Amino acid sequence: MIQMIATISLVVFIAVMLAVGIFSSRRISGVDGFLLGGRSVGPWLSAFSYGTSYFSAVIFIGYAGMHGWNIGIGSMWIGIGNAVLGCWLAWKLLAKRTRNMTRNLNARTMPEFFAGRFESSGMKIFAAAIIFIFLVPYAASVYKGLGTMFSAIYNGASPVICMALVAILTGIYLVLGGYMATALNDLIQGIIMIFGIGAMVMILVNRPEVGGFANIMPALDSISPQLTDVFGGSSGSFLVTNIMLTSFGVWGLPQMVHKYYAIKDESGIRQATVISTVFALIIGCGAYFVGSLSRLFLSANPDGTPAVAGGFDGVMPAVLMKALTENTFSMVILSIIMLLLLSASMSTLSAVVLSSSSAVSVDLVGEIRPDIEDRKQMLMMRGLCVVFIALSFIFATMNISFIVNLMSFSWGVIAGSFIGPFLWGVYSRRTTKAGAWAGLLSGVLVVGGTLAVLTATMGFESAKAFAPQMGVAAMIVSVIAVPLVSLVTKKPAQETVSLAFDGMREPVISNRRDIKEMRKSA
To answer: Does the reported pTM lie above 0.85?
Structure first.
């Protein structure tokens, strides 16, 4: 019964996604149309595109299962941090300036922004290389957890089938309709995600294992006081590190910043800020809350780990299969949750692949052949979307050790490289090319240098566990290095600065009161 319901849901879902791709393909005109939706995307589409790209299936299967199990209710602070810092504050500080400045500079990608803002073609090539090297392996991690849920519903079916479905479907509608198809499907997928997480919470809370909202805290406390400590107890420092990495990290991720380029007008930014923040609160907090309930459904091994196949990745599938297979209604909800996981993965995958393909077709090829025809460039971008989706699928299924290890550091390297030059680039007239280079190099040098030292002293596997701390350190160094180096290096050309900041009405940071002005602008 559950397989029939899930199959019907999948067929309807696939039909809708493909219909959106076909509809959007008729509205594309040139590279700008494919890559940015003609810079005419409304607030609802922009906000949902941002939110769904933020959360992949990893948060529901991997992070929620592991952090909810180990930390308990306190793990919800990660969701709160993502909503407040990663959505509200990011939109508040960056959206308007990014939108205006990328129009002034005619920049369609982050590497193009760096090239125009700091007059450096070398910076453009370096940034595009970072995106290509680290985003494609990161895309492979998007598939994580999907197979576990799919195999549970379809009685041990190969998880590769589900992963192939995500890859093929995402490839078709992305190639057909570009960013506009992605944004429209993100809206649909976001609605599915909201409904799915809401239904999941209500059904699990009212199960006899939980006994209602009033019984959650006493029941968890009887297992371990750690699970009811609202500040995370002994995991407090771990929470802070993960909140910083996953919240501030998106400020420098090209696939997230890209959403600001495409929004139609300034009046929609305030609305998009609210919508994306509410969406993140619902999805982030809902996922970690459900993860914390897992201790009431599953038993633990003597070492405290969950007694389920697949370890922490098997926590959420085991809970859902136990709680949502008793009647037809619960099976329908389970099939919607399966679509939730597909939606979360597809939206993130499409955003990452679009950024990766543009890094090659627009930034690298565009630098080598600046006179390339718009039609050929768009054809190349479509072809690269297929190539990168195929590569991410291969990396995910073959579990290549080098790629798996690269995934662990992708977020930290990219965010650490880009956050400093981008943040100061949109706020400070005084930021220099040398300062921007210092920030760009920080991500690679801090993560790479720290990894080398830790590997030499404790071994690679132990060093890899510190990937989140390396990413946070890289971001901090990048943000500090840019203004410090800019203070002692040659000022940028006034013509370039004037062009970039043309029409900016907010106060511009250019002296020792930088931090105060940034806070005021929020």
So the answer is: yes
